[in-house]
Amino acid sequence: MQFHKSPKFLRRAIAAVLSIFLIGVTIAYPLPSQAAPLLGLANPPQTTEAAVPPKAIQQGSFVAEAVKLMGTAVVRIDTERTVTRRATVDPIYEDPTFRRFFGDEAIPQAPREERLRGQGSGFLIDQSGVILTNSHVINGADKVTVTLKDGRTFEGKVRGFDEVTDLAVVKIDGTNLPVAPLADSDQVQVGDWAIAVGNPLGLDNTVTLGIVSTLKRSSAQVGIPDKRIDFIQTDAAINPGNSGGPLLNDRGEVIGINTAIRADAMGIGFAIPINKAKSIKDQLARGETIPHPYLGVQMTTLTPEIAQQNNSDPNSAFIVPEVNGVIVIRVLPNTPAAAAGLRRGDVITQIDGQAVTKAEQLQGVVENSRLGQTLKVQLRRGDQTQQLSVKTAELKNAG
Question: What predicted TM-score, i.e. pTM, was given to this entire model?
Answer without folding.
Answer: 0.72
